[in-house]
Amino acid sequence: MSLYGLLLLIHIIAAVVGLGATFAMPVLMSTAKTVTQAKFSHSVAGGIEKFAKIGSITLLVTGTAMGAVSPYLFKEIWFIASLVIYVLVQPIVAGILPKKNALQIQILDQANGEELPSEYQKISKQLVPINNIVHISAIILIILMTIKPF
C-alpha cells in the first residue's frame, strides 16, 4: 500500500468515526425529557464528542498530508473547497456548540425538580439550525470528496 493509500484509509476511517459521532449528538440530546435524562445525555455526549474531535483532527491532518504527498490536489477545486468548508465550520463545532452545551449543563445543575427549564429548552431550539449547518456542511464535504465534481 502506498503512503497516499494509507493516508486515504485513515482519512476514511476518521470520517466514519468523526462524522458518525457528529450526527449522533443531536439525536442523543433530543431524547432527554427530564433533568436527569438531560444530565445523562450530556454525560454520554461528552464521550461521543471525543470521537468527533479525534476524527475531525485526523481528517485535517490526513487530508493535508494527502495534499503534501500529491500536491496537484491543491489545484483541484473540490479539494480547496473541502478545506475552506472545514475551516469555516470549525468556529461552530469548536466554539459555539461547546459554549451552548456548557450553558445547558450549568442550567441543569441549577434546576429544581425534573422538568427541563425553559432556558434549557430555548438553547436546545437555538442549536437546531446550528447543527443543521454542521450536518449540511459534512454532507457537502462527503459529496465533494467522493464525487469530486470539479
SSE order and pairing:
Layout: H1 3-30, H2 35-69, H3 77-109, H4 118-147
InterPro entries: DUF2269_transmembrane (IPR018729)
Transmembrane segments: 6-30, 77-97, 127-147
Protein name: Membrane protein
Kindly describe this structure.
The chain crosses the membrane at residues 6-30, 77-97, 127-147. It comes from Sutcliffiella tianshenii. Keywords: Membrane, Transmembrane, Transmembrane helix. InterPro entries: DUF2269_transmembrane. This is Membrane protein. By secondary structure, the chain is an all-alpha fold. Helices cover 84% and strands 0% of the residues. It is built from four helices and no strands. Helix 1 packs antiparallel against helix 2, helix 2 runs antiparallel to helix 3 (77-109) and helix 3 (77-109) packs antiparallel against helix 4 (118-147). The longest helix has 35 residues, at 35-69. The chain is elongated, with a radius of gyration of 18 Å. The model has no long low-confidence stretch (mean pLDDT 95).
- The residue-averaged pLDDT reads 95
Give the proportion of residues in helices. Answer: over 70%
The tally of helices reads: 4
* Cα end-to-end separation: 27 Å
Low-confidence regions = none
What about the largest sheet?
none
Approximate strand percentage? under 5%
The counted number of beta strands is 0
Shape: elongated
H-E string:
HHHH
Which class of secondary structure composition applies to the elements?
Answer: mainly alpha
CA radius of gyration is 18 Å
Q: Can you give me a brief rundown of this structure?
A:
It comes from Sutcliffiella tianshenii. This protein has 150 residues and is mostly helical.
